[in-house]
Amino acid sequence: MAPPTRAGDYPFAPVDRVNAELFTLTYGAIVRQLLTDFEEVEEVNKQLDTMGYNIGVRLIDDFLAKSNITRCSEFKDTAEVIAKVGFKMFLGVSATVSNWSADGSECSLILDDNPLADFVELPDTCQGLFYCNILCGVIRGALEMVSMRTEVKFVKDMLRGDDAFEIRLKLLEQVAEEYPYKDDE
Amino acid sequence: MIGVGRSKQNLNVVDRPLGKGKTEVSLSAFAFLFSELVQYNQTRVDNIAELERRLEDAGYAVGIRMLELLCHREKGNRRETRLLNILSFVHSTVWKSLFGKVADSLEKGTEHEDEYMISEKELLVNRYISVPKDMGAFNCGAFVAGVVKGVLDGAGFPARVTAHFVAVEGQPRPRTTILIKFSEEVLQREARLG
């Protein structure tokens, strides 16, 4: 077979899988605990993002170990890999990349299907909640570990009545790798 | 007003098809998420008992929803009303859909009439967990105990459910036993039903 030429065509090693409903309901339990503990919806959004960040910085190792991908030459490849390989590997769904900004530093990841949000309906009291905000944190954390500082946020959310989930991904800077690494400045 | 003015993809949750429950996500995704659940709850408590209680609460929320889901999907909108049937429902149907296999064993306690045990050699939630020495007998299986409690409570079988490590001879890792102690009224009802 000819080697894949596009990012996302790379086959990744088979991964162990679990039932998506266990995952969905567990995530729901977490969000519910946060809502009870913090009461403020804004604070919950922040907390979910932090949790995601913590996951992201660890998840990147798992991802690189299993995904068989090579170094991305530019940010466009990175976005494709996240959408086609990352989401596929961990959540079993893939996203589409679109709406590139003119300078190529900003794009959208669009998800039609999102296992985190199954069975979910936001009550009136939680209208400001970005239920799946953990995903933003995961992407931000993972990219930071490969020297990219990013800003990631939801701009469309099906739970708020939009037609898809849209995550806006913005590259702030490529942090140059330094060696030997300095202590914290 | 629910569902009014929304697009088709965004039908009210009860109007959407139920799905077969066969979709999967990666085990890592779940393990990462579960680890965050445990770590977050650790910041909110000052002792192990409290931590187990909070994990149990999280599991409980999963349990009652799982019961509802499985009763619709697998049981034609019926649920079990007898003690042994509900136990075997937990041991096989619930376990199979959550963890992909039936539980390793279901036993009746030898000392007390109202105690039952479900044991699992390697509980999914404990697979990547090693408990620090200073946390003693803490068992993340408290989450699964919560799931079991949620299912039983939801089905009208209130019980106290706890998770314990039990050493197994010749095995480096202990197995986890979920101990179920039914409330008095459950046994009385069961006796009346004969």
Walkthrough of the structure:
- The complex is a heterodimer of chains A (185) and B (194).
- By secondary structure, chain A is of the alpha+beta class.
- Chain A has helices spanning 20-38, 41-67, 75-91, 134-145, and strands spanning 17-19, 96-98, 106-111, 148-156, 165-174.
- Chain A is built from four helices and five strands; from the N terminus they run βαααββαββ.
- Chain A has a four-stranded antiparallel beta sheet, with helices on one face.
- In chain A, a hairpin with a 7-residue loop joins strand 2 and strand 3 (106-111).
- The longest helix of chain A is centred in the N-terminal third of the chain and has 27 residues, at 41-67.
- Chain A is globular, with a radius of gyration of 17 Å.
- Chain B has 194 residues and is an alpha+beta fold.
- Chain B is built from five helices and five strands.
- In chain B, a hairpin with a 6-residue loop joins strand 2 (105-108) and strand 3.
- In chain B, helix 2 crosses helix 4 (142-154).
- Mean pLDDT of chain B is 90; it is low at 3-8.
- The interface between A and B is large, with 41 and 41 residues.
